[in-house]
From TrEMBL:
Keywords: Chromophore, FAD, Flavoprotein. This is Deoxyribodipyrimidine photo-lyase. InterPro entries: Crypto/Photolyase_FAD-like_sf, Crypto/Photolyase_N_sf, Cryptochr/Photolyase_FAD-bd, Cryptochrome/DNA_photolyase_1, DNA_photolyase_1_CS_C, DNA_photolyase_N, Rossmann-like_a/b/a_fold. It comes from Microbacterium commune. It comes from the Bacteria.
Amino acid sequence: MTSPSIVWFRDDLRLADNPALRAAVERGEPVIAVYVLDEESPEFRSLGGAARWWLHHSLVSLRDRVIERGGAFVLRRGAAASAIAELVAQTGAGAVFWNRRYGGPQRDVDTQIKTSLREGGVEVRSFAASLLFEPWTVRTGGGTHFSVFTPFWRACLALPAPRAPLPEPRELRGPTRVPASDELDRWSLLPSRPDWAAGLRETWEPGEPAARARLRSFLREDLRGYDTTRDEPAAGNTSLLSPRLRWGELSPFTVWHAATEHEGAGRFLSEIGWREFAWHTLFHFPQLATRNLRPEFDAFPWPRLQPTHLAAWQRGETGIPLVDAGMRELWHTGFMHNRVRMVTASFLIKNLLVDWRRGEEWFWDTLVDADDAANSFNWQWVAGSGADAAPYFRVFNPELQAKKFDRDGHYIREWARDAPTEPIVDLGETRKAALAAYEQMRRAR
Ligand SMILES: Cc1cc2nc3c(=O)[nH]c(=O)nc-3n(C[C@H](O)[C@H](O)[C@H](O)COP(=O)(O)OP(=O)(O)OC[C@H]3O[C@@H](n4cnc5c(N)ncnc54)[C@H](O)[C@@H]3O)c2cc1C
């Protein structure tokens, strides 16, 4: 009798540097890989449209690679606690391995599953694979967590260096009887009526092999100019690794070790540090997507939502060229350059006076890299309510930002050539209104 090992894949859709997979292989029993589409566990947020598109293709790639190596790949849908328990019962599995997640509801589910499987005599082990530093290991001198990035990153860098990445297993041995699996196509992760994903298909190739190729080409060709031009959307020399890290097609350990072999990677690695900081912040404040990290912002006097303003922003029809270019890039490709994310977010929050949560929801639905930590963390950063946030009175002026970071107008011409030219609001007047609202909030304290 065999007692297979189940590897539960979640946000780690890769074979290389996958400690859970490695543990399963080392256990020596047949390996069953499973992915559970869980939209039912309490407080789990449904994936946005662009994320579902990415997930579909990344799962196809992972499934093919697992099967090629001789393993079994199973898809299940439903609350993870019952889906995993059912798979264990059906296969007689003796062990379940996974890489850790750091969101509040996900941790609750994982703890519950770990406890109940162990009570049933099943071996369960979880591993660090998605963050370079475990959130509970990075502490201030006073034993609390950091709320400012620079000392946070300094403290991380003073810890033992991130471990070396693990190699990809060459062979996987599956069970003789492969358990039943859902059909991926029946999950309807891809849009059909209408099929709005043409731009995503043109732009991206999800999956681990393409992720590794992009890491190599970024380090070889783009890293050199990264420090000086990373803020220029037309330069096209940032890594574009965010969806790869979001879906775990690459591990941060792989990125870290590959980058540190190159001179001048410090600035790039500190961006990986911001990713860590966002996740650590979420770990310590699980309501990051819905509640102001700084509670004084609960008194912010948001005016009644003007749906026409929100719609103009979403469609890239604000009449402000850099904002419209960014929103159109997002709609077409599922991605937007970081500088432009900051400008479009600031415009929504401070010039249109729309609550940051409405913008976060739109990005959640349209970004291929939307994740539980980075999206809400950065929206709160722009809003002034988050960790180490930009001061509220720093209202980006999209026209000056365009002059500075899109000097020749390449980016705006590429994305906003036929956008409206009449601004829907006056930048100066709305800036004054935002600062007045902020003063009102401060007086309310
Ligand atoms: C309003 C807003 C929303 C955002 N939403 C997301 C999101 O949902 N998912 C996401 O991954 N990033 C988000 N970001 C951060 C950032 O814009 C993207 O990570 C970056 O644009 C991805 O491009 P890149 O991979 O070429 O970045 P690079 O400049 O090459 O950076 C390397 C990696 O560092 C990480 N990183 C860089 N900047 C940040 C940052 N500010 N916060 C956290 N991680 C960072 C990413 O993993 C990125 O891939 C958001 C930023 C803003 C202002």
